[in-house]
Amino acid sequence: xxxxxxxxxxxxxxxxxxxxxLRGELIERDDLTHRSRDLGVTFATPTIDLDKAVHPxxxxxxxxxxxxxxxxxxxxxxxQRLRDPHNPFVQDCIDRMSSTHILPRGVLEAxxxxxxxxxxxxLLETIVEQNFxxxxxxxxxxxxRDFTGRKSFVRAFAPRLIHVxxxxxxxxxxxxxxxxxxxKAVNLFKMSSSDPFTTVAILRTMADLDPGxxxxxxxxxxxxxxxxxAVERTLYRPQYFDKIVAWGGGxxxxxxxxxxxxxxxxxxxDPKTSISMVGRQAFDSDEALDTAAELAAADxxxxxxxxxxxxxxxxVEAGEDEVDRFGQRLHDRIVAKAADSGDTRPLDRDLRxxxxxxxxLDDEFRVFGKTDGTGLVIRSDEPxxxxxxxxxxxxxxxxxxxxxxxxxxxxxxxVGFYPxxxxxxxxxxxxxxxxxxxxxxxxxxxxxxxxPHDAMYPLHRFVHWMAHEDxxxxxx
Length: 476
Known about the structure:
Elements: E1 5-7, E2 14-17, E3 20-22, E4 25-27, E5 32-35, E6 42-45, H1 50-53, H2 68-83, H3 88-97, H4 105-115, H5 121-131, E7 142-145, E8 150-157, E9 160-164, H6 171-182, E10 186-190, H7 198-209, H8 214-217, E11 219-222, H9 229-235, E12 243-247, H10 250-257, E13 265-269, E14 273-278, H11 286-300, E15 311-317, H12 320-341, H13 349-358, E16 366-369, E17 376-380, E18 392-398, H14 401-405, E19 412-418, H15 423-433, E20 437-440, H16 458-462, E21 464-472
Parallel strand pairs: 2-6, 9-10, 9-12, 10-11, 12-13, 14-15, 14-19, 15-18, 17-18, 19-20
Antiparallel strand pairs: 1-2, 3-4, 3-11, 5-6, 7-8, 8-21, 16-17
């Protein structure tokens, strides 16, 4: 039993401690116990000091007059420390999270340490440049003059943000901290029950670098159960915060929506489903078929299919026999990737029961694999009516990829496409249907630096745009 662990005296169950970080101060007490979402593991937290979690509006944000270049330099140094194999805060985080998170320890280690690559100087500068026509607006009041001679100054003013973080990807914590710092925000991070550790580990690393730095003083990370009215009724107010940046499923968003109103806005990274579209060119040769299956498997298995960009549905333009050839090869590659990751979680009972029912309908469905968590592919003529997850892909046969477009909607995030030279023929129709991103099949995971995320430029949405109008300039 580590120092991060106690035991419930009534059940003898191990209880993992999840500390808070409030504006530079680490708080670790076991005042309250909670259950993690996926595994039902008990973890303990302090009681939230609501007064300390709120930065008064009478005080300007600590980062307001810190140059953006200095902020980026500090983030880069933090990234170097996070990648240090001897960083005690990262190691402690992984030790604790391994007991609450659904992903295997090796995957978590790769995610937490790999996410530090986001804290790269050129990457961060590119993001700012893509989000703001004139990045100087983050550092100063930019003078303007319209054609009537009216003068003004405009600034991307530091906002006050609550970030509702997801539990599926520890790497989002790194990105959210960096984004909050670059817009010079006052930030309160609501951690998830699957991962109430990563955000604090990053902030502890920052505090170890410079405990008095304005970034450290601008950041707080706590946990409460989503929907806890006593906490949310107090914090979700325009007196204290400008916007909620919310990641997560329907319940997470619904908990937020009821508090929205004038002066208190939502920037939502909604739940998304990503798909793949495979044209008939994949069957031109065995080599082409192997390539398409390998690329499709790579997209299905992004973060072991826990990420929004991970493909769930693979629309294949071919006859039934050809699609079954593809389905078998896709299954073989998913199984291999699952084995390499060490993720052997079986499917949950409801999903197993639904898939077992499909195996009885041979005329409509074919199932490749078993529901034991080693990897599964379901072939059908229409998308299944449940959410494929945990190394499960639904291969949908279509006569033409035109038929697949009708299944695209505003919840479709990424479309992995093969062959690549047909992408321009479909991008307008996919955008019209609501999709937000089309990529080469096999490249759902990486993204072009600075591109829109969920059909928006997030940093541009985060800031509080303030105008100072200074009258009409006298004629010369």
